[in-house]
Write a structure and sequence with these properties.
This is DNA-binding MarR family transcriptional regulator. By secondary structure, the chain is of the alpha/beta class. Helix content is 46%, strand content 11%. The chain is elongated.
Length: 299
């Protein structure tokens, strides 16, 4: 990590005097939070009613008897989990402001805590200027990208690989094909073939080079809707083809934007399903219709 990068992280992540009080469920969890650059105000559950943010370590599974109802309704939660416990943790904390981190990578803990703090402060400061809220949101996005890359670099260094930071190009936003949004849905088989083709690229190039979780999520949910299959949160994380914590962040953002919808599993209260919204489904179908009108996948 360069000295400049380190100083930027310190500036963004270092706790301030007016920092929101962060509580941890155990001393071990508090140590993980401290290693990520944040101060912990208290440990255990004795004073959780005063916590603005509660950090829970559920990597060994979702424990029974956790006094979640004693937390203030507007308390933010950061929960460490393993992928096989994502569904139960997500369902258990439904309706709460939650950030799930798969594993205990300090860079990911740091960025998700920062995102949570920015969100809570922005919500509290409802009378602040629009420019300030936009600045905080932009800062959170930039931090998320940087911390995600730092986590990747850390993993690469541990495995002996030495790839550096890559520049990110500007996104191109095309005008939607409004006349094609009522197009006939494509065959689910065609979508699955496209997904398989996207995964085949990973055999020849670094998967990070083509990371596009939003599109992978949209494709998988479109195919699943046509197949009349329900998709759990953990399954969608796998379909996104990015690290689980990154996938969870994208699922949350896409849900906030109205592209995805959450649905309880009526047969298992420990699980939530993710559905494609009707608007998103029509838009994906419109894209396939436009591609077909211009010659199809091979055109």
């Amino acid at each position: 990590m360069s000295e400049d990068t380190g100083s930027r992280l310190d500036q963004w992540l270092a706790p301030h005097g007016d920092a929101l009080p962060i509580h941890a469920d155990t001393s071990d969890t508090a140590a993980l939070v401290s290693a990520a650059g944040w101060d912990v105000s208290a440990e255990g559950f004795d004073h959780i009613g005063r916590a603005a943010i509660m950090v829970l370590d559920w990597r060994d599974g979702v424990p029974a008897g956790i006094p979640i109802d004693r937390l203030a309704q507007d308390c933010g939660l950061l929960v460490l989990v393993e992928l096989d416990a994502v569904d139960q943790a997500d369902a258990t904390l439904a309706g709460r402001e939650v950030r799930l981190v798969v594993g205990a990578n300090p860079a990911l803990i740091a960025t998700e805590l920062h995102d949570l703090v920015v969100h809570l402060r922005t919500r509290q400061a409802s009378d602040s200027s629009r420019d300030e809220r936009a600045r905080l949101a932009a800062l959170a996005r930039e931090l998320a990208q940087l911390a995600e890359r730092l986590g990747t670099i850390s993993d690469e260094q541990n495995s002996g690989s030495g790839q550096g930071l890559a520049d990110h190009g500007l996104d191109y936003h095309a005008e939607p094909a409004a006349d094609l949004r009522r197009a006939k849905p494509p065959a689910a088989r065609l979508i699955r073939q496209l997904i398989a083709m996207r995964r085949m690229r990973d055999r020849f190039f670094s998967s990070e080079l083509f990371a596009d979780p939003a599109w992978d999520i949209l494709l998988d949910l479109t195919a699943s809707r046509l197949e009349r299959k329900s998709v759990a949160v953990s399954s969608l994380c796998i379909a996104a083809a990015v690290p689980p914590t990154t996938a969870l962040r994208w699922i949350r953002m896409m849900t906030d934007q109205g592209l995805l919808e959450r649905r309880a599993d009526t047969k298992d209260a420990r699980r939530m399903f993710i559905d494609l919204s009707d608007v998103a489904f029509r838009n994906v179908c419109g894209w396939f219709a436009l591609v077909e009108a211009r010659g199809g996948m091979a055109g």
